[in-house]
Amino acid sequence: MSGCEARDAKKLVRSPSGLRMVPEHRAARSPFGLDEPPWVPDKECPRCMQCDTKFDFITRKHHCRRCGKCFCDKCCSKKVPLPRMCFVDPVRQCAECALVSQKETEFYDRQLKVLMNGATFFVTLGTSDKSELMVCRLSNNQRYLVLDGDSHYEIEIIQISTVQILTEGFTPGGGNSRAIGMVLQYKVPGSEELAQMKFTAGEDFSCNKKLSASWLAAMHKVSK
């Protein structure tokens, strides 16, 4: 087990919003996670904060699990997965938050899985003229970029300052370019210095070109 995954244990907790599967140690929390919002107190929301319907015995109030605001059932009826808050089941959200969460679900279901599966690149450190063939992947706790070859590196995601995707082919209006690599800059632990790594898809691995391109595209979305 690598050092970055030694604290991956999770526990099931119950909050007013629902059941959540969270890391036992806060330090192991995913950098893509969100804290649960404080709920607007019942006494401060006599009306729906979307349609202004007055709450009464028949029209009950509901809190959106993503924003914490108060809504009637009509304005807060959707139950949508919310992986960024580690909810086990889909939870009630207002229409606006539900749209955002639905888009993020695709990110979790596709891009993060691609990154965790990994891809193979030639990796060059700094200004070196030598490169090393390495398998690059996102750690299971989503906190580190792990590189394995003859050498081993673990780069904390939150320390990455810039991600530049390298492409070839048409770009002006054509949209036919393909990702062939990336340049990564990140802070060195314990200092303010920036280190750089260059990732290049190997031309000798034609069967892996599509996988590498998908991995780079996912990395580009993560950087946003």
TrEMBL record:
Species assigned in the record: Centropus bengalensis (lesser coucal)
InterPro entries: FYVE-type_Zinc_Finger, ZFYVE21_C, ZFYVE21_C_sf, Znf_FYVE, Znf_FYVE-rel, Znf_FYVE_PHD, Znf_RING/FYVE/PHD
Domain FYVE-type: 42-97
Keyword Repeat: no
UniProt cross-references to SMART domains, sorted A to Z: FYVE
Name of this protein: ZFY21 protein
CDD domains per the UniProt record, alphabetical: FYVE_ZF21
Gene Ontology molecular function: zinc ion binding
Alphabetical keyword list: Metal-binding, Zinc, Zinc-finger
PROSITE patterns: ZF_FYVE
UniProt keyword Metal-binding, yes or no: yes
